[in-house]
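Worked problem 6 (solution included).
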Amino acid sequence: MPRREFTPLHGRRQRWAVMVAHRRAGKTVATIADLVVASGFCRKPDGRFAFIAPLFNQAKDVAWPYLLRLTADLKPVSNESELRVDLPNGARIRLYGADNYERLRGGYFDGLVLDEFGDMDPRAWAEVLRPALADRQGWAVFIGTPKGRNHFCDIWERSAGDPDWFRFMLKASESTILPAAELADSRRSMSAEQYAQEYECSFAAALVGSYYGKLLTELEDRRHLAAVGWDPALPVTTAWDLGIGDATAIWFAQQAGNEIRLIDYYEASGEGMGHYAKLLATKPYVYREHIVPHDADARLQDELGRTRREILDQLGVRTRVLRPNPVDDGIEAVRVMLPRCWFDASKCARGLEALRQYRKDWDEKLKCFRDKPKHDWTSHGSDAFRYLAIGLQELREKKRKGHAYAGGSWMGI
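Solution. The predicted structure is:
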């Protein structure tokens, strides 16, 4: 059953709530209990409530057993394939994964729990879930453990002093949920950053497993994340991550001397190459070139069998296709380049968030990081930035070898 430490959460009156709690505190059980109570007392016809985890499988593994246990006395009709329970009063509680949040577009909810919101694509809330609460005046609870200064941190900070928000933090050092001996052992086996993040709810601790988090924090301290204006005297180079049925991300860069200025960022999904060609045309920039990954030369399974490079060329977008490069080499190229970068904090906000959250994949069974990046919404912007770094590196190599570059040497360092 929910623990007494969560009594303030259950007794809240605000429509919106954000709760930051240490590992193994019981926040999932507490919020599932909230959904059960709310659905049981729901007087609206066809009440709809949901628990949303970053991944569908996470929702099934973590929340489904609790939902079945906490609704058992209500005699619900359960459907495991859809992870839903239907209560006798017509209300329904269902579990979802934010990895497929678009499927929720057009639906409605009376109450939502967003678990580990920092691991979700932030667009899930703004574009789909918040509108789904509007006509029913539904409520939402954001829960999680800190993972750096991400969009979950933004919600925590924005809620401070707002009477419309309930705000609650539970640190391991302040609760009595975990024995002191267990905490002491955890502290010995973890880094200081890991312990601060997982048990002391620190948003300031570096994101564990992050590739670029520390470097971006240093850039922020040096005020390199600011308002970076577009210089009409300098050409713009773009770097793309091309998605098929997935997101396509584009970085826009200029260079002034040794500085690399990231002046813009764009990302969309489900669009053809014509959409991005039109987008480029709407910008006031004069383009030097457009860097795309090696798979731009792969034949598409359409009636013409063209490559995306050929399609872009026909649309007037001149591309330079990179040769295949190991991911680790690209990550190192980014790390070398980042100290010379300046970012427009507003126009590049989503791209920056992707870079901050880009991290190693975690092996839950072995309890260690894999030697490869985690593939999620952060991959698109981070991959595009990696291609930018590789593209600049290739130009430097050409210059060192004395090769002429037809496009000029604006990035030759």
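Discussion: The first strand starts at residue 16 and ends at 21.
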